[in-house]
Amino acid sequence: MPTIQPYVNSIEIKNIILCGDFNARLAEYGLTLQNVDLAYGVPTLLTGSATNNNVKSSVIDFFLTTNDELTIAPNIQIESLLSLGSDHKLLYFGFTHDFSPPTPTHLHPRKLWKINKFKSTKDARHVPFIEKYRLAFTSLLTDYTPKLNPDNFTNLTHDDRQIYLDQIHSELIQIICTSLDTSVGSKEQRNKNWK
Questions:
Q1: Which residue from 152, 38, 10, 142 is spatially nearest to 95, judged by alpha carbons?
Q2: How far apart (Å, rounded) are the C-alpha atoms in residues 1 and 191?
Q3: CB neighbour burial string for 50-88, b if at least 16 within 10 angstroms, e if fewer
Q4: What is d(CA 132, CA 28) in angstroms, rounded to the nearest whole number?
Q5: In this structure, what is the dihedral angle of CA atoms 167, 172, 176, 179, given to the nearest 10 degrees?
Q6: CA distance 141 to 171
Q7: What is the DSSP string of 31-58?
Q8: Which helix (DSSP H) or strand (DSSP E) does residue 18 occupy?
Q9: Which of 129, 133, 117 lies closest to 177, judged by CA?
Q10: pLDDT tens string 67-92
Q11: CA-CA distance, 128 to 132, in Å (whole number)?
Q12: pLDDT tens-digit readout, 105-115
C-alpha cells in the first residue's frame, strides 16, 4: 500500500476516490479509509463453507478518498446476503457533494474526417484520396523516422525516456491528422438531435 500515495500525489486533482479489492490490510497513508468510519469491521470477503463451520471473513475491499471534505453524508452499504457467485460482497459507496462539475471546454472533443472517401468504389473515385494521403504521410515521415532510432533512448533517464516517447507519440498523431486534413478533409460533428 505505501506505493499508492506517490501516484495520488502526482495527480493534479484534489478530489479522488479509489475503490476496489486491495487484497491487503491497510494503514491509511494520508488517504481517508471510509470503511473505518462507515462500516468498521463489516467483512467484504467471506470464504469457506457455512455447512462445515469454517467461514472466514476479511475486510479487503475498500473506499479511499484523498480529502476528508470530499463527501457530505457518506455511506457504505455491504450486501452481505446477496450472492454474486464470488467470495466478495457487493459494496455501495454513496455521498453528496457541494462542488460543481467543470464546465466542458469543447462541445465535441474529437476531430472527425471524411474517411468514407477512402472507401473502395467501382469507378475508383477513392484512389486519388488514398494517393494524396500516402503522399502527405510519407513526406511528413521524413523528419519523424530518425526519431525512432533506439540510440536516441540509450542515454536518457527513465523520466526523460517517457517524455521523449510522449513527444514522438504526439508527433505521430499530428502527422496522421495533418495527412487526413490534406487528403480527405475534416467534417463537422452533427448536432446530437440530428435525425
A1: 38
A2: 46
A3: eeeeeeebebbbbbbbbeeebbeebebebeeeeeeeeeb
A4: 58
A5: 90
A6: 10
A7: SEEHHHHHSTT--SEEES-TTTT--EEE
A8: strand 17-21
A9: 133
A10: 767 677 888 888 877 777 788 888 88
A11: 6
A12: 655 567 889 98
Give the model confidence (pLDDT) of 51-71 as tens digits. Answer: 777 788 888 888 888 776 767
Which DSSP string corresponds to 75-137?
A: EEEEESS---SSSBPEEEEEEE---PPPPPS-S--S-EE-GGGGS--TT-TTHHHHHHHHHHH
Residues 6 or more apart in contact with residue 159 via CB below 8 angstroms: none
Distance CA 32, CA 4 (A): 13
Which three-class secondary structure state does DSSP give residue 62? strand
Burial 143-176 (b: 16+ CB within 10 A, else e): eeeeeeeeeeeeeeeeeeeeeeeeeeeeeeeebe
Kindly report the number of other CB atoms within 10 A of residue 178's CB atom: 14
Q: Are the CB atoms for 127 and 102 separated by under 8 Å?
A: no
